[in-house]
Design brief:
With about 160 residues, this protein is mainly α. It has one domain. It is about 70% helix and about 0% strand. The chain is built from eight helices and no strands.
Amino acid sequence: MFIPALPLPTGGVTHIFEIVAMLLSLEVFLGKRTVWLPRRWRTKNITGIGERKSVTVLIKQLRWVEKYSKPRLKQLVGNSLFMRATGLALFIFCLAAFLAPPFSGLDTLPSLAVVFIALSVILEDFILYVLGLLVGAVGIGAILVLGTALFRSFRLL
């Protein structure tokens, strides 16, 4: 979800990432221990999509986050019920990003929430988890408020 989290117009390419992320989040919600993707998706090469600049920026940002991150409430991240709730939260934020009005930039915050929550699980940092939930809630609120206003303005035309 790093690519959809970028505040750039992508012309719908991000929907592919959002669908894959929704599938993976459902697997987490169902308690799966291994990743399942359709055979056809496993063989797809996505290296050309924003590879050089975005990966360099991503690594730089990850190093900054790792520098300040600390394991907080480590035992919670290993809890099965907590991981299922995390899968549900990830699915909701991915779905919100997917349903955001096209070319509005409103998919950025829910996508960023997924990135924060994923990092919180990897780094076992509960503060990042809460930050992800907050960013996602603000993102969904923005989609509802601004998306409604956007659709109403088009209806008046």
